[in-house]
Structures are given as C-alpha cells and as structure tokens.
Specification:
59% helix; binds calcium ion; myristate; two-stranded antiparallel ribbon
Length: 193
C-alpha cells in the first residue's frame, strides 16, 4: 500500500462486483459499504479474514445470539476454497445466502458447517462436534451431559442417513432438513437470521 493511501481507498475490482451481483441481491452501494466494513476487520494487507478476525466480526453481526462456538464452524463453512481465510467475495456471498436466500441455499451452507473435513459428507463425529455449538446457540447448554449429545447424534443419523452408509450426503442433509421442522430447528445455524 503506497504512502498516503488508506485502507478505505482500496477499491473493488469489477470482476468481484460481477460475481457478487450475480449471486446476491446487493446493490453497488451496499457492496461498497460492506467492503469498507470488511476491510476494517483485517488490519493487514491480505484483504482476507483469518479465523480470529472472522469470529470477532461474526459475533458483531449476530449480537443477540450466543455464537461464540458457532462462529468457528461458520468460518470453515464460509471459507469455500479451504485456504483458511475468508475473502470478501466468500464473505458477502455466504452472508447473503445465510440471511436472505431461500431455505435450500441456507441449508447448503449449513451442510458446510457440519462437513468439518470438507469431504462432502457428514459423519456422526462431525455432528457431535457441531451439536455443542448448536446447543449453545439455542440456549440448551445449561449442563447437557455427554449422553444428550450422543442420543441426539444417533437420532440425527437415524433420520437423515437414508441409505444407511453411516454418512449423510449433501442431498440427504438438505432433503431431510427441508422435510423435518424439528431437526431443522435443532440443526440449522442460520434459521433466525
Ligand atoms: Ca477462502
Ligand atoms: Ca465430512
């Protein structure tokens, strides 16, 4: 960054605009405002948020909710290319999808939240890990014992793993949650935003 230039001067290139306007309903002014806000969160020149920066920002975006644990899971889900950083394009597309998009699009990101190792399927262990964040978000973390998590995970596997291969595919996840309001309320981290 040259002398006299501040981060606020950083401009978005047209291809970023094109991608974002194609996949979201944001207008140019919205995108500019988000970009400025985004850059304030990453003080280095990378223009990409690391996990710590993202989690802090995400907690600010959902101030009424307990997303302390969840924000780390959401970081992995928003980092679509898996380079351990969330770029502006990744952020704004994901933020739109998880707040204003139709249910199916929200569930696609919800799937990514659970698919911790990015292998395009969810196993019981991944469910157990994310359930703790969901219990916290839903205010169910008073003192759940190990047993409640295990029971819950078994129940989820039983209901979503339609072909019984011990894994939940993206299709099983989306179809299952679309058709089961109870599981959706328990598992979708983006239902209230
Ligand atoms: Ca990334
Ligand atoms: Ca997985």
């Amino acid at each position: 960054m040259g002398a006299g230039q501040s981060k606020g001067d950083a401009i978005l290139n047209e291809s970023t605009y094109d991608v974002i306007t194609k996949y979201t309903k944001f207008k140019r002014n919205d995108i500019l405002a988000w970009h400025e806000r985004f850059l304030q969160q990453c003080p280095d020149d990378t223009q990409t948020m690391n996990k710590e920066q993202f989690c802090k920002f995400y907690r600010e975006l959902r101030p009424q909710e307990n997303v302390n644990r969840l924000s780390e899971c959401v970081f992995r889900a928003f980092d679509l290319n898996g380079d351990h950083g969330v770029s502006f394009t990744e952020f704004l597309m994901a933020f739109f999808a998880t707040t204003e998009a139709p249910l199916e699009q929200k569930l696609r990101y919800a799937f990514n939240v659970y698919d911790i190792d990015h292998n395009s399927s969810i196993d019981r262990n991944e469910i157990l890990l994310v359930l703790r964040s969901m219990f916290e978000l839903l205010g169910m973390d008073a003192k759940p014992d190990k047993y409640s998590y295990e029971m819950c995970a078994d129940n989820i596997m039983k209901n979503l793993d339609v072909n019984s291969d011990e894994r939940i595919s993206k299709e099983e996840f989306i179809e299952g949650l679309k058709n089961d309001p109870f599981l959706r309320s328990l598992m979708n981290p983006f239902q209230h935003i």
